[in-house]
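User: Please predict the structure of the protein below. I'd like the answer in structure-token form so I can feed it into my own downstream comparison script.

Assistant: Understood. Taking the following sequence of 206 residues as input:
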Amino acid sequence: MKKDLEKYENEIRKKSDFIHKERIKAKKDFEKKVKEELSSIGMKDVEFVVKIERKEISSTGYDRVEFYIRTNPGESLKPLKEVASGGEKSRILLSIRNAIRGELTRVVIFDEIDQGLSFAAAKNVGRKLKELSKKNQLIVITHLASIGAFADTHFSVRKRKKGDSVKVEVIEVKEEERLKEIGRMMFGKYDDGIKRQVLNFLSEVK
């Protein structure tokens, strides 16, 4: 029994050593890819670092892996979970997912990813979301047409007052209704002139 236990412990250590070496080998290339993705969506000053520290052996090996960032020059590196705003976290997550290139396929929710973005910057984010959606199911909550225009399926969330309460409706918008929704997101109104601009914009993002 004791010999079997020692044998398994040795096997676990060997596998943990292998995983550790692979992580160290992949670290610099992964950091570089994430920085390139961040730069492409207007976050050129963000520094991204992967820290690998020793911990007790578990099902994932003996490494503790944590992402650190610096959002402004001159600041110290801090854990991503402590320093980034909601919008920044969503955009950094998008960059990480695109750096992985779809190796982890699952449902990903992005909320506030458009926070603080200009129309043009959001368009770049929209393109990156579209790229990621080829291998993942994405749910994106946005107020900007330059992100919503890239969606395969578009839902409008509306609040309606009913007596003393407020009712929230989630409605799928298609064809003309979708044009109206994107027009309202872009200009706050909709008419024939805006419809032409919306159609032109949608043809650009296809």
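That's the full token string. Helices lie at 2-40, 80-83, 86-100, 119-132, 145-148, 175-187, 192-205.
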